[in-house]
Amino acid sequence: MNDALAGLVGLISPMTLLLVLVGTVSGMAIGAMPGLSATMGLALLVPFTFAMDPGPGLVLLGAFYMGAIYGGSFTAILVNAPGTPSSIATAFEGYRLTKQGRSEEAIVAATVGSVVGGLVGVLFLLFLAPPLATFSLRFGPQEYFWVAIFGLTIIVGMSTGSILKGLIGGALGILLGTVGIAPVGGDVRFTFGEPTLQGGVPLVPALIGLFTVPEVIKLVGRRSREYDVQKDSTPEGRTWWHMVVDLFRRPVNLVRSSVIGSLIGILPGAGGSVANLVAYNEAKRTSKERHLYGKGSAEGVVAAESANNATVGGGFIPTLTLGVPGTPPDAIVLGVLLLQGLRPGADLFTQSGDLVYTFAFALALSALMMAPVGLIGGRALQRGVVALPARYLAPAIAVMSIVGAYAIRSSVVDVVIMLVLGVLAYFLGRVGVGVAPIVLGLVLGPIAERGLVQGLLTSTELAMPWTSFFTRPLSIALILMTVAGFLWPLWQNRKKGEVDDMLTEAEKDRA
Amino acid sequence: MIRPRSLAIALVPALALGLSACGDGGDAAADYPTKRIDYVLPFDPGGESDITARLQQAPLEEELGQGVTISYQPGAGGALGWSELTRSRPDGYTVMGCNIPHIILQPMLRDDAGYETEEIKPVYFFQSTPNALLVPADSEMETVEDFVTAAKENPGAMSVGGSGDFSANHIGTLQFADVAGIEVSYTPFDGTGSAVPALLGGHVDALMSYTPQIEQLGDQVKALAIATEEPMEGLDVPTFKDAGYDVVDGAYRGVCVQEDTPEEIVNKLADVFAAVNEDEELVQDFRDQAFNLENYGPEESVELIESRTDQYEELLSKLGMLDR
Q1: Which of A293, A393, B120, B183 would staple A284 via disulfide (CB 3.0–4.6 Å)?
Q2: pTM assigned to the model
Q3: Quick one: DSSP state of residue B55?
Q4: Which domains does chain B show, CATH number per domain?
């Protein structure tokens, strides 16, 4: 308790508060740019922390990370370009809201979700770190395999029209995920002699291509003035305050998604890119407004954004207690801890407890600061983008996409990958294969493959190693969730089949 | 009519440019460095190579009298960066971290790694992290002998995790298994970061990892042996040799440049890295992280690579893993 007090005192100094503000705002700016992920931004920031004591340095990094994950939602909502892989599901719903002239609502939903998610993640870090870190270790290769398979069941729920087309997209994504050096065995696959492809299809350029390029083509091709008519972005006349209150009237979604995000953040190696998808799917599965998903649902934005910001606090649990980074950006923070001579582990909490608490409180404060910064800055950005005529917007997005794809590792090949996938996604979209299943396959396929092969290799003591996938208690729980995840939407589709058909028809008429 | 003249006009500046470029080339080696140097790591930020480069950054800038920027080009276990290096300008302003055994084993075992070992020029190898065999703290095994006995009881059943395919951990496991006459199942993980939780959670029986993990993981693990010639200062862990197994290997970290870089520049860079290795603060930090200080100049590095190459070739062909 004394440590907690000391930590709080450590936070309440003008310098520290300033660092939290600077970290949060700069994180949001970097996160909002496709191609500059939270991990890259943190790496750029590390040299600045050398001149600081461990405490302020960590405060700055933590606030930056929190802000970056939130910032990724802006471009996802406004131009269908997820700023970081943590905002994939945000684009699913947020951009559709934008198209309906409800981008302000989406921004507010993302803000509320991010703030609550960020705070819940920190609560987990403060109160449940040691037991949860121990629990997370029970996830072995078999469980990672099943988590990925469970995630892939989202495809079924997402395919409103044809499940077959959803599965085609998912298979295509998994196939794209196999390009490069095999995660186990080291074979080189599908690189067609291009050395750059050895690293696989890079996720960020792929996301930019799949999501953004088809939209640019549509903007140019249709010659519509889609964005012009949307200056009045609150057709129902609600103010942002009403939107916030509305979101808090339905706390279940907020809390559930935040808890999902915190828990997935704790699993080493998973992180925001998986958490936002799983939380989104759970929100959709249990929602009373299921028919709105895929057509613009603020609930979906809340789910994705609260989950990804919750991974921040959750991810620091294994980082600080075990010395094992929970998410990729945590690896950077771990590196800084080591450079400063701080050893993660139970000792860190007992010996440098005040430091840990200052850090956790700074994360919470950063989450709180996102509210005013996001509601003022985010909505200003939103107004600017919707006011922009399509003839300026389309080239601006195109340039941003190319720069973003190039920036991630200064590679022209990445730009080519981005463009090829984008054009492919456009044509696939025209025949009814959406990008969402492709992205799911690309993100989850490699996790499933790695889990499968590693699980087989670590179970060689069994006569039939594959049986290990069906006998471990956690695996069985995940299998049951997978089966439920697969059957639930099918059952619901049958129940609501007629309504959905009507809605799909209506959609087609409009397009 | 106009063509010859315009050609001449076009040629003059081109020639001038060509000449001045040659001139620059000559001076460039003598004056080097005259601008910022890019220190590129072919791995993700946050790992051991990153920590090392961060520790070197300040003393490097002091020695060079120029700024040093650290950037990352991760992918394919480093192969992406190294194949990029072969296409970079041979002017000494792009210096890339390079690791043994990666730069040896990738070209040896992949059909097309995008580079050949000979195509990248080692400047200096400044550090090594020896292999270390770790088991969970609550394991019944206390010594390497216990491990060998357990492995012999049930051939192939014991699982040993490590960082990646054909990493120092992988080759170290193969070496140890070969020398001890045991059969184990090696499972590659996505770097040390994801291998460690597999050990702590009991999903693998043991981990072939690097010495810094002994310090970092503290009392969560027991270190059975380290793969060095002599016991390491400050580490109370026996060597494989003490137990009668001739296993000495680990990962070596250094820097490389494009192969056509002038000798003068390579030597100058090597001197700088040698001087950085004597920086008192850095030496202390290396010790704290359980990194071994190494000093292989350009020529010694080539010898090191050649001797390791022979050793790996012998082992892998004996195990039937070299199919070409």
Answers
A1: A293
A2: 0.85
A3: H
A4: 34-128+251-318 (3.40.190.150), 130-243 (3.40.190.10)
